[in-house]
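From the shared-data thread, chain only:
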Amino acid sequence: MIWSAYMGLPLSLEGVGTVLGLGKQKLTEGKDLIRYFCQPCAPTKVNGGRTRNLPRHAPDKWSVFKRYNIRDVEVEMSIQEKLARFPVPDAVWEEYHLDQQINDRGVAIDRELVRQAIEMDSRSRSELTTAMKALTALENPNSVQQMKQWFSDNGLTIDSLGKKEVMELLKTAPTELQTVLLLRQQLAKSSIRKYQAMEKAVCADGRARGMFQFYGANRTGRWAGRIIQMQNLPQNHLSDLAEARALVRSGDFDGVELLYEDVPDTLSQLIRTAFIAKPGYKFIVADFSAIEARVLAWFAGERWRQEVFESGGDIYCASASQMFKVPVEKHGVNRHLRQKGKIAELALGYGGSIGALKAMGALDMGLTEDELQPLVTAWRNSNPNIVKFWWEIDRAAMNAVKYHMNGEVDSIQFCYQSGMLFITLPSGRRLSYVKPKLGTNQFGSECITYEGIGSTKKWERLETYGPKLVENIVQATARDLLCYAMRTLSHCFITMHIHDELVIEADPRMSLEAVCEQMGRTPPWAEGLKLRADGYETPFYKKD
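Structure, as tokens:
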């Protein structure tokens, strides 16, 4: 599976067999047979009260099951034969071994906090539902259709009950409808699912394991979250987080409701804090500062940006200053421009334009429609080397696919081989694009298409171009930098890693400064790249 993932192929045996066009394919009967023979069954009169199906209970099924398992091995051998020319580098296997150690090590869960949070959520939902029924007379106020119809009957047409849409409606809706909207917003919180996942995942020793899927992100090789899904945990903004946590842990529902009003939101903000260091230990949480912006500036040779990072400056202020040709300070002169610098930095680094600014919430932040295009133009004019880098990457990839020409842009290499486009990163790791060919994009221009997992989670033909490839390259390099830091700190007890952040379960005597210093070391293959890691110590996980 790791070999397939490294080659940009699906993570399922069935999927790889289909994409590679193997003569022997995985048999489809397997799932039912696995369920029959490998999972406990419910005791009934018909099955004699047994809780396990054995071969003697269904000889015909057992015969098919053996054929199914033999075929799996045959398919795996066929895949190995197909991929033999493209071995996974030893360095990636070493990363995988470290990943397995971290997954097996697991992280401690505060089971009492989880239990109380689930009970508190159940009571909260019951009370909110009762209040909603009293106000609306609806049979099921959780039903989106019933709620939309109720609002329509009361003079408020609603297209969506999403968080953003409800926030907008709250600004203009009549007071009585505002109350219902607020209750609806609280009911819609899905915080309980994370707590339930923790309750199911926690082992007998109080630790949850197996939460990180190595090479789960097909294009970059980054990790994906599994089981509890660590990659999308809600942020916490409570100033008295420890106090709120103590109230929930003690089961004081009335105290939480009195002090925080919105119980579901409070529980949501406390999800991270359910991950704890074992008794007598602390968490050291360290992450890279502006890692993607640093890597992009390093690749493109955008010197003014590199100088900002070298001096420890604020990239949002510096970007605004570069764009508008005036000094900008976070809490000083022209500070109102920093927000424009920030939204431009977040949205425009990978070829984004007006649509990207809107998707990043530019209009919600107070920018007007008329300001968007000038903002795009100003950012691109301020970063000519990044714009140049996009199209150099585009040309190199296009030449590799169109003419099967090897190419190089700085330390990034391109080649076409055996129906694959390979991009070799400075670390030596390759990005793989399956069955690339030329196509035409929505604007009528020539572009590269390839096969991969799309937004629908299905295997399909996707299109790409220079800035998108730059995004893959930058994020993949950021992933390699994290792996280098993980190997540098492998003697420490790493329990979690989320995006560009490491969480270490540490002895109280371990130095935060030493961890950050080690994490910020530049690998030999990234000469000239200025890294910086910042961190904090905490008894429970949180967003500092």
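DSSP finds 22 helices and 15 strands in the chain.
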